[in-house]
Amino acid sequence: MAKLNMVKALNLALLQEMERDDDIVILGEDVGVDGGVFRVTEDLHRKFGGKRVIDSPLAEAGIIGTAVGMAIYGLKPVCEIQFSGFAFQCFHQIENHCARYRTRTQGRFTIPMVIRMPYGGGVRALEHHSESEEQFYAHIPGLKMVIPSGPRNGRALLAAALRDPDPVVFFEHKALYHAAKEEVPDEPEIMAIGRAQVDREGRDLTLIAWGAMLRVAREAAEQVQTEDGASIEVIDLLTVAPLDHETLVQSVAKTGRAVVVHEAPKSFGPGAEIATALMEGAFLSLEAPIRRVTAYDVPFPGFAREKATVPDVARVVTALRETLAY
Amino acid sequence: MPRTRVEPRFTVDYLSILDSDGTLDAALEPDLAPEQLATMYRAMLLARRLDERMVRLQRQGRVGTFAPLKGQEASQIGSVAALTPRDWMVPSFRETAAMLWRGWPIEKMLMFFAGYLEGGQPAPGQRDLPITIPVATQLPHAVGLAYGAQYKDDDAVVMVYFGDGATSEGDFHEAANYAGVWHVPVVFLCQNNQWAISVPLKKQTHSRTIAQKALAYGFPGIQVDGNDLLAVYAATKEAVDRARAGEGPTLIECVTYRLGVHTTADDPTKYRSDDEVKAWEKKDPLTRLVPYLERKGVRTQGLEEDIDAEIAAAVERFEAAPAPDPVSIFDHVYAERPPHLERQRTELIARLAEQEPGRRSDSGVDGARPSDDGETVSPPMRGQRTTRR
């Protein structure tokens, strides 16, 4: 056991998986000598060399496109897109090919690759460095979309993504990289992709969040429990797609109320899908409309104004109280 | 059938006029009056001093991440000086010198890097696009602008800035190809500063030069000493004149060096040696100009005080002004705000009022939205409200 922050924990997953599987290669901008702009690939270039840890030219479509070819050949590429806001320059490769090769070749060729991207706001970054775009990837059939909330589950989910037979888009929240340290086992640890976790048990309302919003949800749940005596169940989604209907529906069948929190804009976002899944699975248990606390439907503002749009504890508390009182 | 050569041998020129030792090739010297040279030198010095100040402001937490240009002043001023106000300038994110030259106020640069998109709003009639961060994505825009100029029979030229890393992106190649096919008046100005964050040029391209990439797209490319103001100006003037005369695009590769960090979030000691940086410091674009300018009777000493006062005054104005209204995040999403945004905006106003009782939002109330067309409303600055009331 060692206490690691998320950067070190993700680095550990990459290191151990690369030691286990010689076919894993890392490619991306500045992932080699520099160790990645967030240092997630620190030291891997030194340990495994430039053949396995590739400093790519500055071209996102090239990173994903060549990785598709590598995956077809039998390698397991781990691509780093430096910031999720730059992934639109490779979106065609992700949608047209990563997600579809299994279908396009009727199972003959598959794309077991991982696309890591830092995402999310709260780090005083410039334009295109703070967005949350999980909805785009979650919407694409054939892709898995994973978002850890801390060092330990980040490490275990990244290791799982590396062993997954299908392409996994793996979002890492920048504000979580150095936010907290957790005990991380020395031995490899794997968590199942596609499973949400009950982070805190409760009776009166189910609060669903992921990534950096989990901390916001926990704090809001604590405040409402302390001040109002209401018992809030917090669910850490961990995998956005495929969505874990079972865990969500079980919880809401018990509590009868649900609030979803996400950093992505509201309209057509993951909250809409989750609310509909709950309607379909727990309609007769619902005591109140399902609420969404999300970023507003505006392009992500300059960082000086990000607090105006990214959900905070006060907004979640308001939504919890209104839903409880409905 | 024999194997035959279908194209003649291509050539790529390298242009240097005033080298780092101060040696001048008088036959190539561009026609610049002492007053013009004085203006250009001051602009380079202003950019250098502002750059240093911005890095300090970032370290103090007064602005966010900043991309310094130190070392690239000649590449930017030598090229932008060849444009007229009716031409278009399309920057990436390190073009502080070129942007100041084009009239962007220091306050706006501060605003942008302090996280306010107001800093990206061009003045009414200003023919510049804002800072663009996703690498190379602004290049096709420049070609589209140039097509527009050609379409409207306007003799405007478009100049677009980008770095060596950008030439790996598909957008660079698509833009260059379109420019060649459409034969539009655009100048591709590549500042090859040797490093795309930690990736050196040799890992970026296997081409001997970046300039030669133009040849594949059917237009000329030239490599210049990017730390030589005179060479950059001469090459760019020629390209701009050719574009204006209907002779199509040019790619100019300014061979220069980023003396500082990629951005204030970067640590270059991880990937490059001090010796390399020191070697390039000897080729500083400002120092080599001083003896040349003195021979021309252009004043180069004692300018710093005046420049620093100009910067300090701008920083003071920027910091003294009240922060812009958060509610304005809803102001420029659509020409007309749809009902769901109206509801979200109302929610934000209520939240802010709860946090700060008695607060009034001045942003775009009652449909008096600030104009998006840039014609009737002057660009909002920090503290300047945007309502018409």
Textual characterization of the structure:
The complex is a heterodimer of chains A (326) and B (389). Chain A has two domains: 2-184, Thiamin diphosphate (ThDP)-binding fold, Pyr/PP domains (Rossmann fold), CATH 3.40.50.970; 197-325, Rossmann fold. Helices cover 37% and strands 20% of the residues of chain A. Chain A is built from twelve helices and 14 strands. Chain B is an alpha/beta fold. Chain B has two domains: 13-319, Thiamin diphosphate (ThDP)-binding fold, Pyr/PP domains (Rossmann fold, 3-Layer(aba) Sandwich); 326-389, no CATH class. Chain B is 38% helix and 9% strand. Chain B contains 13 helices and eight strands. In chain B, helix 9 (229-244) links the parallel strand 7 and strand 8 (250-255). The model of chain B is unreliable at 365-370 and 374-389 (pLDDT under 50). At the A-B interface, helix 3 and helix 11 of A face helix 13 of B.
Overview features:
heterodimer, A: 326 residues, alpha/beta, Rossmann fold, 14 strands, globular, B: 389 residues, two-stranded antiparallel ribbon, 13 helices, disordered C terminus
